[in-house]
Amino acid sequence: MRYKETKKNKLLYDLLKNHGVKIYEDLDNGVFPKFLIPSRSTRNIIYDRKLRQYVLGNSASIRNSKNISQLRSFTQLTWLAFFANRLIKEKKSSTLRDIYYSSQAFSIDFEDQPESDNIIVDLESVLSRPREDLHIFPEERSSVFGDLVIEYTVPGYEGKRTNLSDHPDGYLIGPSLSSAELIETSADLVIAIEKGGLFTRFVEEQVDKKFKSIIIDTAGQAPRSTRYLLRRLHEELNLPVVILTDGDVYGEHIAMVIKSGSANAAHLRELTVPDAKWIGVWASDIEKYKLPTIPMTESDIKRIHDLKKDPRYQQGIWKNELDVFLKIKRKAELEAFSKYGLTNITDKYLPQKLEMAKSL
Amino acid sequence: MRYKETKKNKLLYDLLKNHGVKIYEDLDNGVFPKFLIPSRSTRNIIYDRKLRQYVLGNSASIRNSKNISQLRSFTQLTWLAFFANRLIKEKKSSTLRDIYYSSQAFSIDFEDQPESDNIIVDLESVLSRPREDLHIFPEERSSVFGDLVIEYTVPGYEGKRTNLSDHPDGYLIGPSLSSAELIETSADLVIAIEKGGLFTRFVEEQVDKKFKSIIIDTAGQAPRSTRYLLRRLHEELNLPVVILTDGDVYGEHIAMVIKSGSANAAHLRELTVPDAKWIGVWASDIEKYKLPTIPMTESDIKRIHDLKKDPRYQQGIWKNELDVFLKIKRKAELEAFSKYGLTNITDKYLPQKLEMAKSL
After folding, report:
1. In terms of residue numbers, what domain contains B85?
2. pLDDT tens profile B171-200
3. How many Cβ pairs closer than 8 A exist between chain A and B?
4. Which residues in chain A touch residue B342, judged by CB atoms under 8 angstroms apart?
5. B205 vs B342: CA distance, rounded Å
6. Nearest-CA distance from A39 to chain B in Å?
7. Could you report the predicted ipTM of this complex, rounded to two decimals?
8. Are residues B131 and B191 in the same domain?
C-alpha cells in the first residue's frame, strides 16, 4: 500500500520537474520564463453542478519574468517550487510560517506572511495539488476517534499501525495521520461533529460502538486536513458521512463546506464529500425538540441573506432550513440538548436523525 | 494505582457531602444555610514566595440564603454542588457550556454562561479543588508526545495502557489522559513548547529520542489540564520541565504561568511547576542568534510595563529579559530559526539552551 504514497510523490516530482525543465529550456533559448496561473478571481469561480463543488473556470494569468512588476512574484514562486521539492525529498514537514522564515535564508524577499501564504496558493493552483501534498501544513488541528486501523508512512513509523480507538481523548489529525494508509475498520458510518465538547460526550457514550461509527471533531469550520480525511473515509472505505453542527447559519455552512468545498479552495479537488449529509441541528429541530435558544444577531441574519444567493442553497433542506432560521430568528447550540440530560443528544436525538437521514 | 483516583473521588464526595449535611442541619435547626467563599478580589490575591505561586489571603465572604440578594447565587451554588456530585458518581464528563444548559432542566436560572462559569469558580474556591476534579472540562486542548506509558481510569478503558509515542501527531490532553495514571517513561526531561508547528517539528526531528524527552504542545497559554499534567510529570516522575516560547513578552509570561500559576487560579494549587525553567526564546537570544524580528506594538510595550510591577518579575532572567525586550523593542518567533534551516532550532539552539539550563 505504501506504493500509493510513493506514486503520489512521484507524480509531484514530475510536475515540479516539468516546470523546472521548462524554465531552463526558456533560459537556454533566450526566452523569459513564465508560469501560467489559473485565475482565482471571483469571476472565475464557478459552481460545478456535476462535480458538486466550486471549481475554477478557464481564465488564467501569466506570471512573466519579462514583466518587471511580476519579476518579484515569479521569483518567489520559483523558489517555493524548489523548496517544496526539497521538503518532499527530505520527508520534512513545514508550516506556512516556516515557509515565510525559510525564504530569508535564500534572500527571497516576502513583505510579510500573507504575501508568502499567497504564493503558496499560487503554487497550489499551478500544480492543482493541495499544499499538504507539498508537506506544508497549517497549525489548525482537529481529531478523530473510532475503530480504524491506520498505517503510518512518515519516517521512523513506516509500516507501524495504530487503532484510532486506543486513546479515548481522540487522535490529532496532523501530518502523520493525513499521510497514513487507511487499513481497516468495523465502522459503517462517519459522524463529523462541530465541537470538542460533544466529541468527548460521543466517545464517552460509546457512539462509536452503538452506531458503529468513526467520530470526527471538526473543531468549528473543518480544516482542510480533516476534509481530506473525511473524503478518504468516504472514497476508500465506502463510509457514508453525516454532519452534526450547532443549529445556526454558521453550522449549516460548516456542513456545506464539508459537502462541496469553499470558494477559496476552488482550485483544488479532493477536499469535498458531495454525498455527505447534514443531519442537524436544523432550524426546524429547534421547535421540534424544544431546545433552549439564543436570539440571532444582525450579522447572523446578514449571513443568511448572503447564503440565500449561493447556488448551493437553492433547494432541499439547504434552502428550507435557511428559510426557517430567517423566520424564527433564533439559534440553538448542540449543548442545548443538555437541558434534557447530558445523554439526551446521544440517546434520543442522534438515533432519530440517523434514521431520518436514510431518506435524505 | 487506581486506588489513588478512587481516593481522590472519595475525598471529593466527603467534601461535597459535608456541605450538604450542613445545609440540612441548618434547615432542621431553623437556621438559614450559607456558604463561606474565599474572596478572589485582587486585594486578597497574594504571591506566596514559599509556595512560589499566587494564593488567596484570609478574606472570605458569606453567601447567605437569608440575604435576598444572595439567595439566587446561593441556590445556583447548591445546585452545582449537587450536579457535580452526580457527574462524579456517574463517571460522566461535562463542559462549562453543558453546565449552563443542564441547569435549565432543574429550573435553575442562569442569565448566561458567564454567570454559570462564575459559580463554577465559586465552587472551586469553596472546595479548593479544580473543576476538572468535578468532571467539568473546558474545550481547550493541547497535546503530548513521547515515551510515556499511561493507564486509563475512564469507564470502558480501566486498566488499558497506551504508550504516548505510538501516534506521531501527538495525543490530545483531554479528560481521559488527565485522569490516567502515569506508569513509566524512559524520558529524563519534559519540553513544553508554545506552538503546534514546532511540536510537529520536534517530533519529526526525534527530539524525544535525541534528548530523552516528553514533548508537550501548550498551544499558546497552557490550558489548566496541561499545567496539571506538567506538574504530575514533575512530581510523580521527577522529570525536570523546560519551556520554549516565542521571544516576546507573551512568551515569557506563558512560561511564568506554567511556573507559578495565574492570579485568577489563585484559589487552586496543583497547577504550577515552581521548578520549571524558561529556556527561550529570550530577548537576549534575538541578537545572539541573529533572528529575524518583528517590531513590538504599543500593547506589547504596555504589557512589559505591567509585568515589571509583578512581584515575580523582580529578579533573575525574568527581570533581565523584560529589560532587554524593552530596550530592543523587537520580538522574534520560534519559527524565526527556520531562516537558518528547518532543523536549526533542534540541531543547534535546543542543545545549547538545554546545556545552559543546567546552570539556571
Report:
1. 2-137
2. 999 889 988 999 999 999 999 999 988 999
3. 153
4. 92, 94, 98, 102
5. 10
6. 30
7. 0.85
8. no
